[in-house]
Amino acid sequence: RTCAMAFNRIADRKFDALNPRTASRHLPTGQISLLSAVTLCVLSGAGLVGASFLLNSLCFYLSPVALIVICFYSLTKRFTDYTHVYLGLALALAPVGAWLAVKGTDVSAWEIVQMALLAVVVVLWLVGFDIIYALQDYDFDRTHGLHSLVVAWGPKNALQAAFLAHMIMCGLLLVFGLICKFRVAYLIGWLLIVGCLALEHWIARRRSLNWINLAFFRLNAVISIIFLVVTLAEVVFLGGFRLR
Question: Which residue of 45, 134, 139, 200 pairs with 150 in a disulfide if CB–CB is 3.0 to 4.6 A?
């Protein structure tokens, strides 16, 4: 993530300098030099490759592919309206990578189904909240020829697409819990996640754009934490809170 975010700031530094929302970032203001940003990007990428080597050979061979995919996202806004979908696909590598880090090549067909389903959930989650986040830059992106579904479809239609993506995501997230045989803890967490997503869309539709940061950062952080906690509870306590 550090490598990808550093690359994003490097690739977008000229646009960031022109956008009032991002003009105060470190590169446009000179708080961090371009050389420092490039160094951080290269070292963090090398760190991923090195860590992957210590995991297993499959992760090591795939690590450069993961870096290329996740960094390339920063360029997609220049030529496609579906940049949100590409970012979703890039971040969907996370659950797949985590699975392969633990299992290596010893992955069953059923586990492939599980990881693929969770990857689709990540794609839909990202598509939904990245569309909401892109609302902040609607005027700037349209003026400077940058692409997004918000620019292509308009804010109202894009928000409807985001809501649909999150609705499907919630359904698939429930299916994921069922096929993993998760029980009470996961169901409670799932209900909380649905509530967070509903609140996120209410904020996006009813409040000013200044509230988008709340919907994007805080609520999605809460969703991530909830999913982590309830999944750990299910795995460690087998859903019935019996210590394995």
Answer: 134
pTM of the model: 0.85
Give the burial string for 87-121 (b: 16+ CB within 10 Å, else e). Answer: bbbbbbbebbbebbeeeeeebeeeeeebbebbbbb
Q: How far is CA 184 from CA 62, 64, 115, 172, 190, in A?
A: 36, 39, 21, 17, 10
Residue pair 242/197 in contact (Cβ under 8 Å)? The answer is no
HSE, side-chain direction, 13 A CA sphere, residue 13: 17
- What pLDDT score does 244 carry? 46
pLDDT, tens only, 13-34: 998 999 888 889 999 999 999 9
Q: Give 203-232 pLDDT, tens digit per residue.
A: 887 766 666 666 667 888 999 999 999 999
- The token duo for 20 is 């009032």
Q: How many Cβ atoms from other residues are within 10 Å of residue 124's Cβ?
A: 23
DSSP string, 3-59: HHHHHHHHHTHHHHHH-TTTTTSHHHHTSS-HHHHHHHHHHHHHHHHHHHHHH-HHH
Tell me the percentage of the chain whose pLDDT exceeds 70.
Answer: 93
